Amino acid sequence: MPLIAHPQSMPFSQPLPLQSGAAIRDYALSYETYGTLNADKSNAVLICHALNASHHVAGVYEDQPKSEGWWDNMIGPGKPVDTDRFFVIGVNNLGSCFGSTGPMHINPDTGRVYGADFPVVTVEDWVDAQARLLDALGIRQLAAVMGGSLGGMQALCWSLRYPERVRHAVVVASAPNLNAENIAFNEVARRAIVTDPDFHGGHFYAQGVVPKRGLRIARMIGHITYLSDDVMNEKFGRQLREGIDLKYSTQDVEFQIESYLRYQGDKFSEYFDANTYLLITRALDYFDPARAHGGNLQQALAQTQAKFLLVSFTTDWRFAPARSREIVQALLDNKRAVSYAEIDAPHGHDAFLLDDARYLNVVRAYFARIASEGAAA
Amino acid sequence: MPLIAHPQSMPFSQPLPLQSGAAIRDYALSYETYGTLNADKSNAVLICHALNASHHVAGVYEDQPKSEGWWDNMIGPGKPVDTDRFFVIGVNNLGSCFGSTGPMHINPDTGRVYGADFPVVTVEDWVDAQARLLDALGIRQLAAVMGGSLGGMQALCWSLRYPERVRHAVVVASAPNLNAENIAFNEVARRAIVTDPDFHGGHFYAQGVVPKRGLRIARMIGHITYLSDDVMNEKFGRQLREGIDLKYSTQDVEFQIESYLRYQGDKFSEYFDANTYLLITRALDYFDPARAHGGNLQQALAQTQAKFLLVSFTTDWRFAPARSREIVQALLDNKRAVSYAEIDAPHGHDAFLLDDARYLNVVRAYFARIASEGAAA
């Protein structure tokens, strides 16, 4: 009997002040919950998502057996984050295109679709919005907040912004900020979208078009950076798509890797929103808790109160282990309790979503410890 | 008194058969020579260029003091490849947009501009065309053939295709073939160009437009892969372009790295030809001398007769040292004479064009040895 997920929506009428100085009002957050909130409301775990994900973290939708949540291998009954013990909340971030209020929704100030006028949101804004959702659900303190990649940044941000509301922060395949190369890849992807003639300055909805060319390029770039060199060579290498003879064409698919990337790009451009892509990559660029402390991460993390689990993957060149180690070191320098696992995995950044026994066991053991601590910790 | 370069053009009426099975006729190669061919014509050095370069390798043009050749720090009087000793030839490849016959020239079969109908050319085709140029210049054997990156592939190809015509091959920052990740980056760049509405299937010249959007994206991707992570962090890091306040914009430039990439993309799109970009990246993809030997590089290199210098750079992730070492190993397994230098340089793939004393000294010493050997070697 699989876990059945029930998407819900929480409306907020109170304006949410944003880091940019703007505010957003009359918005809604999509979310799902799994498991049961215990009597003292001490077993809640919040899951934060990365670029291309949503509140649908675990389980399947009724009568849709293929609709597994994006972290279904990690979260569910008897799984590393055990929904028989924890009340797990998946939430979709503001600006997303998967349910929560985003660029394709109506701007209450104008009565027209937001489009490019959707306010620029940051990791801090998302965390603030998530905190309000917890308020609405009556949850004062999280047993844990957890996320991978951009989701890990949110988990880290939670421990800084609401230190007393987080007992544990689980930060997987993440970084204390993006480096120049990461920003560079984001920028190329954004330029591809913004310069697509079908983007219309971000107001393409009214034109009945979608900047698919740009979205395809953005996704292709993304996929290259999610995979490791090793796994690409193993999976595709220089294998030709058709037989062994070269076609000698600059435009046709010749190598399997080209076919894979085109397929991923095409698929993505069918469902992902271009304005959301811009917003989410920008939130990634901006995240940098050390910035307000002159670049001193130790100082920035001094305000944390949580215990931490950090996980990184050896072949992840997008969020390399060295970046996780910066966080670990800064926490240790603050005498925080930190567990750190560097998993020797071939899959690059994608590894955080995949089945790796060592990785899943580390998380399982950590959450077993959280469960045994209870609210007393 | 700087070296003054004189561009020349050599016409060829005889059709050149290509690897694809097609042929090209009535073409011309642009080239430059520096220094003096000695009496027994034994001191010629051929320089092969990479993606964005040309026959203008060294020196400056008359009355254009800023027009230094792309490898002017390496080649010239008293420089590592000393034009007081060697007769150096720079040649522009077929399909280029810098002088030799390319997609913007007239197809003699149709009387119209080639555009996308320019035949797909390979590294082997370029080497064959270069061999004909040497024939026309009366040069039977090269003291050395030298190139970096794609130019290094041509140097390696020379040693295989015309073993008796090459005494030394100098292969810098190169590889025995592209790996899947390299092909992937090329493919994204090509898709950006081909899907630009101004590309018109490669026949944009007649429309009076240029697919600049695609060229910009292609160049931005290229620049990311030419630089190392380290040098990007050092040069740009997370530095903002204007002051210290964030603008909270998804489309404006916020970080210095974005400004740099946009500038490079804009500049490139003003002068580089889109069809040439497709052709050259495809030549990169196709090069794979081991392919005809079931992937066995040692077997492929058994036919070489030259002595070799290989150079790689530690932070080059586009053509990593490990790829150069594959060539070195395969040559050693064939008992060839090989010198190999792995230069600890922070600049990534770009290092092969930059001033690094150790690198320049290695090349200087190697060419001094070639000069001392004379034609007897």
Automatic annotation (TrEMBL), chains A, B:
Its EC number is 2.3.1.46. It catalyses: L-homoserine + succinyl-CoA = O-succinyl-L-homoserine + CoA. It is an enzyme of class 2 (transferase). Substrate binds at R219, D350. Residues 43-354 form the AB hydrolase-1 domain. The keyword Amino-acid biosynthesis applies. Gene3D superfamilies: 1.10.1740.110, alpha/beta hydrolase (3.40.50.1820). Pfam families: Abhydrolase_1. The active site is at S149 (nucleophile), D316, H349. The keyword Cell membrane does not apply. It is found in: Cytoplasm. One of its GO terms (biological process) is homoserine metabolic process. The record marks R318 as: Important for acyl-CoA specificity. Keywords: Acyltransferase, Amino-acid biosynthesis, Cytoplasm, Methionine biosynthesis, Transferase. InterPro entries: AB_hydrolase_1 (IPR000073), AB_hydrolase_fold (IPR029058), HAT_MetX-like (IPR008220). GO terms for cellular component: cytoplasm. GO terms for molecular function: homoserine O-acetyltransferase activity; homoserine O-succinyltransferase activity. Homodimer. Transfers a succinyl group from succinyl-CoA to L-homoserine, forming succinyl-L-homoserine. PANTHER family: HOMOSERINE O-ACETYLTRANSFERASE. Belongs to the AB hydrolase superfamily. MetX family. This is Homoserine O-succinyltransferase. It comes from Pseudorhodoferax soli. The lineage of its organism: Bacteria, Pseudomonadati, Pseudomonadota, Betaproteobacteria, Burkholderiales.
